[in-house]
Design brief:
CATH class of the largest domain: Alpha Beta
Helix content: 40-55%
Radius of gyration: 21 Å
Distance between the termini: 27 Å
Shape: globular
Strand content: 5-15%
Number of helices: 20
Bound molecules: ligand FNR
Strand order of the largest sheet: 4-11-10-9-8-7-6-5
């Protein structure tokens, strides 16, 4: 934090706004209407997004004076890895809506601060390339459970090969949420086409497309380049994406993707096979109730992410922060709980940690940093959030993340 203030004193201009409201405003200004609807939008009437934020406004932090907080240590051990802070970047699909090679830039920005990035299964660059952009910084992989089990195993094997620190299986998107703004603008084909890189780069996916089309298996059925070219052709003509997809192979590829990227039949029986299928720590993302959290730990997973997908799936769902409080109270201090949905500032991170999170994922804010200033923007958003967390610790009398407890909060709705 003092580094940030000193840079200001020396006349260095920040790369991105230091407050979320302005960050959001400027990111909106540089985005197309379609990109903005997809990234900033939520499910239905947007009530889950509003609840996520309102839940933070119910808790007040209690500053504590003269506690001698020099030498603060923000590091945490998470699933066997030492991290510089309890912050990770959430998996985001279709980030290329906001700029070229989004996952490479976000990976670089994360790595510049030693912050792990969770690569999305719907990412815009193959995970091998994003991993190469991160050097030694931890990276995780997020899986959507395909309806083709061969693809599940192939993606897990690739995650192991890129040295992923954990496998995150997202449970809340077996079907896509009701997103009226995207439906109105016809933007889903773009998002779909952009988020296909993990598939076109997968040999098993190529084999599945070949099986469906009867084409030979010795060369890729479709390349990411072909899909991108189609998207570029369709950009100025809403609705023409599918028309341009006349050529049978890319069309078969996109259709195959849509058919098999998720499995609406996903059940706890599938999930119970996970621990035998990989040596990576397993994390289930999208847990919102005590019952589901208990089941997750019963089948031996290493952590859960308490999340409602940033309010993008079920409209008027419970706030993720309220779910965190309930789940921590029910399960006790031991199980590893990661939290996301609604984190905007360092004070928010502090509140989530105080309410029982071991670490948090940051979603939209890092994408906005990317939209404004590429990898630098991502790194600066991270530094700002961590700096505010650090100063909040200084002023609440804590020197380590473990000392951030609910004793430092009181329930007091914000009504100003
Ligand atoms: C997401 N999220 C997400 N989650 C996931 O598991 N796989 C994915 O591919 C995506 N894709 C995605 C795209 C975009 C544009 C957004 C904004 C979000 C959800 C994400 O991981 C995280 O749960 C939320 O973004 C957290 O909420 P906030 O921080 O955005 O409020």
């Amino acid at each position: 934090q003092s580094t940030i203030y000193r840079a200001g004193t020396l006349g260095r201009r920040p790369v991105v706004p230091a407050d979320f409201a302005e960050l959001e405003r400027r990111a909106r200004r540089v985005s197309s209407a379609k990109a903005w609807a997809y990234v900033a939008g939520g499910a239905g009437e947007g009530r889950t997004m509003r609840r996520n934020r309102a839940a933070f406004d119910r808790w007040a932090i209690e500053p504590r004076m003269a506690a001698g907080t020099v030498g603060r240590d923000l590091r945490v051990d998470l699933l066997g890895t030492r991290l510089p802070s309890p912050l990770l970047l959430a998996p985001v699909g279709a980030g290329a809506l906001m700029g070229k090679d989004s996952d490479l830039a976000i990976a670089r920005g994360a790595a510049a601060t030693g912050t792990p990035y969770v690569f999305s299964n719907q990412g815009c660059n193959p995970m091998e390339e994003a991993a190469a952009a991160m050097g030694d910084t931890p990276r995780w992989f997020q899986l959507y459970w395909s309806s083709d089990e061969r693809l599940v195993d192939s993606l897990i094997a690739r995650a192991e090969r890129i040295g992923a620190g954990a496998l995150v299986v997202t449970l809340d998107t077996t079907v896509l949420g009701w997103r009226p703004q995207d439906l109105n603008l016809g933007s889903l084909p773009f998002a779909t086409g952009l988020g296909i890189a993990q598939y076109t780069s997968d040999p098993v996916f190529q084999q599945i497309v070949a099986e469906r089309t009867g084409l030979p298996r010795d060369r890729p059925a479709v390349t990411l380049g072909a899909i991108r070219a189609l998207l570029a052709m369709s950009r100025n003509h809403p609705g023409s994406f599918w028309a341009n997809l006349r050529s049978p192979t890319p069309r078969a590829s996109v259709e195959t993707f849509l058919d098999i990227y998720s499995n609406p039949g996903l059940s706890w029986e599938h999930l119970a096979t996970l621990k035998q299928r990989t040596r990576l720590p397993v994390v289930l993302k999208g847990i919102l109730t005590e019952k589901d959290a208990r089941r997750a730990f019963e089948i031996g997973v290493d952590a859960v992410v308490v999340s409602n997908h940033g309010g993008r799936q079920v409209d008027n769902a419970v706030a993720s922060l309220d779910a965190l409080v309930e789940i921590r109270a029910a399960l006790g201090p031991e199980p590893t709980l990661i939290f996301d949905s609604g984190i905007r500032t360092g004070a928010d991170v502090f509140t989530a940690l105080a309410l029982g999170a071991d670490a948090v994922l940051l979603g939209r804010p890092h994408l906005y940093g990317f939209a404004l200033a590429g990898a630098h923007g991502v790194a600066e958003v991270i530094r700002n959030v961590v700096a505010e967390l650090d100063l909040t610790m200084a002023l609440t009398g804590v020197r380590s993340i473990a000392e951030i407890t609910s004793d430092l909060l009181r329930e007091q709705p914000l009504s100003v």
